[in-house]
Amino acid sequence: MSGAAASRGDFTLTEQPVLSRNALVRDENLRLDPEYVRDSWPKARVVVVDESGRTPVDWQTDPDREFREGDAAAWDAAAGRDGRIRTRAGSDVAPEPPTEAVLLGEADGVPYWAVRVGSAKTADSDVFAGGPGEWTDLRAAGAFLDPLGSGLLTGAVATLNWHERARFCAVDGTRTRPQNAGWARRCENGHEEYPRTDPAIICLVHDGADRVLLARQPVWPVGRYSVLAGFVESGESLEACVQREIAEEVGIDVTDVRYLGSQAWPFPRSLMVGFHAIGDPEAPLRLAEGEIAEALWITRAQLRAALARGDWGSRDGDAGQPDTDPVVMLPGTVSIARTMLESWAAAGD
């Protein structure tokens, strides 16, 4: 790192955000090929997603009782588990692709599709004759899935959610029907719509040296903090959005806006675009009412201590920490925010 870059606190992500991992090959030409669509179904594997966005996942190491009950230590210990989505053969689901099915892509020559089912209970009895997996959603399991599973579930949830919200044409209000193997919908008058992605920025604000800015939304429990984020407005660049959102949420100006990475966040259809920027820790913080309950600057050492406590930020066993240190709970590993914070903490070595 050059002296000039180091003076601005420049850094890069130390690892890929977990929901950016994807071993699935997407190909628009295959979706437009009726012969491929028809012939791929009998040899396809199908991702089944219930009405709550959950799918069955098999773990190499079964979760123990504490993990199932949400114990923080067990959750941290489980972080190394290798989760794989349980799929079903296309020919066992239906003789041909259902109307609402989505062709997700291929991996190692195997086509993968996604379908929605009414509930996990129905799917367990009607879809998985071999017995149920552990039904879980992307927020809970995304960080622990293999790259194929991450890509499958991210694409399935995002696209199936869009189908549920696009049943009527935005132009004339007539009913729409799926096209292009689930990647478009066409209304009765021929208007086409495509899966929508709403870009949002997420920015780690630091002072160019040894302090980082964290904030808490009012709906979060006391002590839970993350970096700042917000949606991109029409006609706005990503960099301009960073500057506007930071000014609106905490009342400070930032400079040296730099791109870090991105991650799909299909809740229901966002793309989180990560940046870092420099702010002045001496500038007064003016919190946006109703959006930000607390904001504070902490040192790199304090951030490292919070990261060492795990996703839940418990102070148990932290007797060596001064009582003046803030209790900070950080985002879980499924979020790009966690990757950004870990990368900035590591950059100070």
From TrEMBL:
Q: Which UniProt keywords apply?
A: Hydrolase, Magnesium, Manganese, Metal-binding, NAD
Which molecular-function annotation in GO is an example for this chain? NADH pyrophosphatase activity
Which Gene3D superfamilies does UniProt cross-reference here?
3.90.79.20, Nucleoside Triphosphate Pyrophosphohydrolase
* Domain Nudix hydrolase intervals: 195-320
Co-factor requirement: Zn(2+); Mg(2+)
Q: Which species expresses this protein natively?
A: Pseudonocardia autotrophica
Name the gene behind this protein.
nudC
Recorded GO cellular component terms are: cytosol
**Which residue ranges does UniProt annotate as crossing the membrane?**
none
Spell out the protein name for this chain. NAD(+) diphosphatase
